[in-house]
Specification:
Layout (H helix, E strand, L loop, with lengths): L7 H25 L3 H5 L8 H18 L4 H21 L1 H6 L8 H17 L6 H17 L16 H10 L6 H21 L8 H9 L3 H5 L7 H12 L8 H21 L3 H19 L6 H22 L5 H4 L9 H9 L27 H7 L6 H20 L8 H14 L2 H29 L6 H11 L3 H10 L6 E3 L12 E2 L8 H11 L6 E6 L11 E13 L11 E9 L8
Parallel strand pairs: 1-2, 1-3
Antiparallel strand pairs: 3-5, 4-5
Helix pairs in contact: 1-3, 1-4, 1-9, 3-4, 3-8, 6-9, 6-10, 6-21, 7-8, 8-9, 9-10, 9-12, 9-20, 10-21, 12-13, 12-14, 12-20, 13-14, 13-15, 14-19, 18-20, 19-20
Length: 598
């Protein structure tokens, strides 16, 4: 990764300019497409500019990098356009700032600004999480290395990538490590805009910033906004598509525009992360029924067009890369015809963090950013108001269906319930009951305080890593998963070596590395299929980090020890209460002549 990242401070500046460029592009798109009226009906318009700019760029670049072999130049051209747009934003920023009003806004407003700033600074910190350094960054870097967005069947975790990794690659094209994280930060602006709009002409208007704080203080947000993991951005898009159902009918043209936006947003969510198929499906069914009542059967042309133009190329791309049955990719993100992927699918359906319902309650300091705190209580509050209006009943119904279905077919972690938390927050506003806000303040003031302290600690410890190489290295060694081990590997393996790495965060290797993740999800017989696949790489070395060498199905493919070192580092995380044990590094010669029967 290091060869694709410019100096830390320049990376920070470039990432910010790219993000501001998205704001300018979004403003142009909304204005030229006459979407102002539709967006204003559900949100503060200005808070959606960056989001719609990112959506447009995402739709534009994916087919260009998936179906051509000119990914690097395409991404650089678009990135430079964004840089120029970002500079334009800065030149006009004096006019924008003059329109903002900061005086006499209430304590909640100022706390909201501080916490929002903390999240922004958190998004500008170096990447450290294991899955971020595995396929989120790794797939994005391979887009640039191979000059095309391709999928590698032996890299099981890499097949979890989607639309979002194209945006991460856009940042890497100019050496901007934090751009992908800023895309996730934009979700907070989207969420804020929706809540502020719904509090307008409502008894909650004076408490709108406190309601936003109830969302921003949900601990799982720290987990999601600490890297470029493409999830919360799609949750904000799904919220936006959901609330379009609560707009009043004006005319058929506006209705059709709104329904088109809903379909596009849901489609992007599913292409970005397949786990949105359930919540996205629920919102689509409700939206279709809702808009069908106000229009005729011809509205089904819209989802047909969105499927044909956006979703079909996406599943065809997977089919072209992985084979199998193209219909399968509508229902599963993985090539289930290949060995081991049924096991991998079952693994992903299981909880990777704290399972339901444990994450509804506090567990320990080491898992503090993996639960939902007081936010699920909104569901219990809304039960007492289910007779008040139809929208509240819909929110309760869809939330209940999600909880039941998701736990029948899987065991989703707390982060997959963020959509429900956002819907419930809208439901609280729709109660229009002043007594609720007093109760909520009693519950959430301590939660907001705790999150404020955690964010303060995080910014203080991680943000300095974005200012100089020495501080960047310090943050990485102390908090990035297996960073010390990979630095040792990069320093000791000859240039242009072909290597396979068993451990996950392979993006930290100085060049392309083959993933050995297939070993975790296949038996010995199934593993033979992938041994045949990796023979094309002409591997020189195989690497493992742990207490002792464990090459699993590839153990018979090793020859002699090339190099090993004890206690290279410890299993680093950002949570000071979750420090892991130390590990050793093992580099063995790989005997490619023994493939695939070794």
């Amino acid at each position: 990764m290091s060869s694709y990242i410019i100096s830390p401070f320049l990376s920070l500046i470039t990432s910010l300019l790219l993000f501001l460029g998205c704001f300018e592009i979004g403003k142009i798109i909304i204005t030229k497409c006459n979407l102002d009226q539709s967006i204003r009906s559900v949100s503060v318009l200005e808070l959606q500019y960056s989001t719609f700019g990112i959506i447009f760029i995402s739709i534009l670049i994916f087919p260009l990098i998936a179906f051509t072999q000119q990914a690097e130049i395409i991404l650089k051209i678009i990135a430079y356009i964004l840089i120029l747009s970002g500079i334009k934003f800065l030149l006009l920023s004096k006019n924008i700032v003059s329109q903002l009003h900061f005086k006499n806004r209430g304590i909640s407003f100022y706390i909201y600004l501080i916490i929002l700033l903390f999240y922004l600074l958190l998004a500008l910190t170096p990447l450290t999480a294991a899955d971020v350094l595995d396929y989120h960054a790794g797939v994005a870097l391979n887009i640039l290395r191979f000059n095309q967005y391709i999928l590698l069947p032996e890299w099981f975790t890499g097949l979890q990538a989607g639309h979002g990794e194209a945006l991460i690659a856009l940042g890497f094209a100019l050496g901007a490590e934090q751009f992908g994280s800023l895309v996730q930060f934009s979700s907070l602006l989207t969420i804020s805009g929706v809540i502020i709009n719904f509090c307008k002409n409502n008894i909650f208007n004076k408490s709108k910033y406190f309601l936003i704080l109830t969302v921003l203080s949900c601990p799982i947000l720290i987990f999601l906004l600490s890297g470029n993991k493409p999830q919360i951005f799609y949750s904000s898009l799904l919220l936006l598509s959901f609330v379009f159902n609560f707009t009043k009918f004006k005319n058929k043209k506006t209705d059709l525009i709104n329904y088109l936006i809903i379909n596009i947003l849901i489609c992007i969510c599913v292409m970005g992360k397949f786990s949105f198929n359930l919540t996205g499906g629920l919102v689509w069914i409700y939206s279709t029924i809702n808009y069908l009542k106000r229009n005729d059967i011809k509205i089904f042309i819209i989802p047909g067009l969105v499927f044909t133009i956006l979703f079909f190329p996406f599943i065809y791309w997977k089919f072209a890369n992985l084979g199998g049955n193209i219909i399968n990719y509508i229902f599963s993100p993985f090539p289930l015809h290949l060995p081991g992927y049924e096991t991998f699918l079952s693994h992903n359906r299981g909880s990777q963090e704290i399972p339901f319902p444990n994450f509804l309650f506090y567990t320990s300091f080491s898992r503090i950013t993996e639960y939902l705190a007081f936010n699920p209580i909104f569901f219990l509050i809304l039960i007492f108001f289910y007779k008040k209006n139809n929208e509240i009943r819909i929110i309760l119904l869809l939330s209940s269906i999600f909880v039941i279905v998701s736990n029948v077919y899987a065991s989703p972690s707390a982060r997959y319930y963020l959509d429900i938390v956002l819907w419930l927050t809208i439901g609280i506003i729709l109660t229009n009951n002043n007594n609720i806000i007093n109760f909520i303040k009693i519950l959430f003031v301590p939660q907001i305080l705790v999150i404020f302290l955690i964010l303060s600690y995080s910014v203080y410890n991680f943000f300095p890593g974005s200012f100089s190489v020495s501080k960047y290295e310090k943050v990485k060694h102390k908090h990035a998963y297996l960073y010390s081990g990979f630095q040792w590997l990069n320093e000791n393996v000859p240039e242009n070596s072909k290597i396979l790495i068993i451990n996950r965060p392979i993006s930290q290797y100085k060049d392309f590395a083959v993933s050995g993740s297939f070993n975790y999800f296949t038996n010995e017989q199934e593993g033979t299929f992938y041994k045949e696949l990796i023979s094309k790489y002409n591997l020189d070395f195989i690497v493992y980090f742990g207490s002792k060498p464990d090459f699993m199905h590839l153990d018979g493919c090793t020859r002699d020890v090339y190099l090993q070192k004890n206690n290279i580092g410890f299993h680093a995380t950002r949570n000071p209460f979750n420090k892991g044990s130390s590990y050793n590094g093992y580099i063995y010669y790989f005997d490619k002549s023994k493939l695939p029967v070794c």
